[in-house]
Design a protein that fits this description.
The complex is a heterodimer of chains A (about 120) and B (about 110).
Chain A (H helix, E strand, L loop, with lengths): L4 E3 L2 E4 L5 E6 L6 E7 L6 E7 L2 E4 L8 E4 L6 E5 L8 E8 L11 E2 L3 E5 L1
Parallel strand pairs in A: 2-11
Antiparallel strand pairs in A: 1-3, 3-8, 4-5, 4-9, 5-6, 7-8, 9-10, 9-11
Chain B lengths: L3 E4 L2 E5 L4 E7 L6 E6 L5 E7 L5 E4 L2 E6 L4 E6 L8 E7 L11 E2 L3 E6 L1
Parallel strand pairs in B: 2-11
Antiparallel strand pairs in B: 1-3, 3-8, 4-5, 4-9, 6-7, 7-8, 9-10, 9-11
The chains are: A mainly beta (about 120), B mainly beta (about 110).
Chain lengths: ~120, ~110
């Protein structure tokens, strides 16, 4: 197992375009999370999945943001009609149901950096 | 809304010195996390503190939790260059809430100077 994989690592796009990021979690982890990190800040929670169910999405930043995990394995995060304010690092993380007494000890991926011109 | 504050935000230390990073949070929680981030890299879990009075140590780093004061500290002993990184603390809703959302502080950027 090589950990949490994210693709692409970097994406440069023009304002108004749609972008999609993919995350492959650790295979035995049933929980998957998306966070956003802007320069000089800590990660900000966006949404999470337990298996294929999206159980918390209120923090998705607008209706331009959507996430899926169709088969309970990999996940995608799509941003439609990108704006310059969407420029950030998008981090995916996963954990198992029971690890460390159920606490949120997450394994993060390397992130997908988005630059909107 | 849960707030997590760290101080200092920036810290330059000489090798061999000791220092402490502070993390205050605004709600009752008995679970606190410390993560490390190297420049351009992702976050790595360092410690998870699961009860009042919990203390964890790994090498030159020691973390503690005081849930009554809503305060955690990360103490660095005899700093070495390899510890240069940004350190984040994070809090969730606590063991009684099943809260899956971590709220992170803004981070402390630590630079160890030879």
């Amino acid at each position: 197992d090589t950990g949490v994989s994210q693709d692409p690592r970097h994406k440069i796009t023009k304002r108004g375009q749609n972008v999609t990021f993919r995350c492959d979690p650790i295979s035995e982890h049933n929980r998957l999370y998306w966070y956003r990190q802007t320069l000089g800040q800590g990660p900000e929670f966006l949404t999470y999945f337990q298996n294929e169910a999206q159980l918390e999405k209120s923090r998705l930043l607008s209706d331009r943001f959507s996430a899926e995990r169709p088969k309970g394995s990999f996940s995608t995060l799509e941003i439609q009609r990108t704006e310059q304010g969407d420029s950030a690092m998008y981090l995916c993380a996963s954990r198992s149901r029971t690890g460390v007494l159920g606490a949120n000890v997450l394994t993060f991926g390397a992130g997908s950096r988005l630059t909107v011109l | 809304e849960l707030k997590v504050e760290q101080n200092p935000l920036f810290l330059s230390m000489q090798e061999g010195k000791n220092y402490t990073i502070y993390c205050n949070y605004s709600t009752t929680s008995d679970r606190l996390y410390w993560y490390r981030q190297d420049p351009g890299k992702s976050l790595e879990s360092l410690f998870v503190l699961l009860s009042n009075g919990a203390v964890k140590q790994e090498g030159r780093l020691m973390a503690s939790l005081d849930t009554k004061a809503r305060l955690s500290t990360l103490h660095i002993t005899a700093a070495v260059h390899d510890l240069s990184a940004t350190y984040f603390c994070a809090v969730d809703g606590g063991s009684n809430f099943g809260n899956e959302k971590l709220t992170f502080g803004t981070g402390t950027r630590l630079t160890i100077i030879p």
